[in-house]
User: Fold this.
Amino acid sequence: MSPVRAATVTPRRPVPAHIPRPEYVDRPEPKPYQGSHVQTPDVIERMRAAGKLSAAAIQEVGRNIRPGITTDELDRIAHQFICDHGAYPSTVGYRGFPKAVCTSINEVICHGIPDTRPLEDGDLVKVDITVFLNGVHGDSCVTFFCGDVDQESRLLAERTHEAMMRGIKAARPGRQVNVIGRVIESYARRFGYSVVKDYTGHGVHTAFHSGLVIPHYDDPRHDTVIQPGMTFTVEPMIALGSDAWDLWDDDWTVATKDKSRVAQFEHSIVITDSGAEILTLPQV
Ligand code: MF3
Ligand code: CO
Ligand code: CO
Assistant:
């Protein structure tokens, strides 16, 4: 496969004026979040709706993935779907990001900008969507297969999903957040994969990225104790080869230096008294 290259990014799509937008839109950066990592029942209830919508938008994009469709067209579909449901696509105008979805193909780790590149048969397509609904964000990501994807990449995607689920199951009150990373990394290592360290999970609620960091690798410095009512993402990026990365000239797209393929899955979760509830499950 040839390396993924940047194509043309189309103009930003407007969001209808009646849809409430996050405070950070078109400002250089978000206001630092100063509140608690533990959310109120009201915020959590609103996050259930935002989470479901994020998952539904991803499924809508997934249904349209096929060789020949451009990631810009996928963005148009996602943008329309999110706005039609009365939500703001959280990434539009977030620190200058221009689109409603991150489309990260093959060796692109994350933050790929939708553009006029048509998808090719065999592409691994990570679709990451965050929506802002009723004052809270729901953030999730799925790795899709475009056409006929090689077995090595399929296994990578399956195992990345399994790694995320194991991380989520390890998230229980009283443990440090590092337990999530420890579980994910030890599973990924069994297969000789590497876990991306420089992009992490994060607290998510009224803030998109609250400042709470959820590592996907073992690092005891991340010693925040998990408590009921905490809401955060688990979103491992796992590479077939090395996780060393380069940033493209667009200042967003992150890709592996060795061009090895990467899979990613992401859920937003809330910690309960006994474990975690996933907020971003697609409704079957
Ligand atoms: N949704 C991504 C995450 O999981 C963040 C994307 S920010 C963007 O945290 F600006 F790159 F879109
Ligand atoms: Co995301
Ligand atoms: Co996230």
DSSP finds four helices and 15 strands in the chain. Helices lie at 41-63, 71-84, 151-170, 178-190.
